[in-house]
């Protein structure tokens, strides 16, 4: 995990905490539920673009999230036209 220094205080790359980043992605939940065929909505895509690719990768590599299909979650940037490189490409 990468930490970013902000005003002398080490901050989580996805905001204050992992949980706060996860909460921002609540609008995406219907699109990432196991076996979902729903496209992400406008609020979900806005959240993906705001959080950015490094944060999405942190969430995807983090602990299991109940009710979330990681494969579907990793497809969100493409479905939202966010044009992020795949998480596997980052080091």
UniProtKB/TrEMBL annotation:
Pfam family, one: Tryp_alpha_amyl
Single GO molecular function: fatty acid binding
Any Gene Ontology biological process: systemic acquired resistance
Occurrences of domain Bifunctional inhibitor/plant lipid transfer protein/seed storage helical (ranges): 14-87
Top-rank taxon, per record: Eukaryota
Protein name according to UniProt: Bifunctional inhibitor/plant lipid transfer protein/seed storage helical domain-containing protein
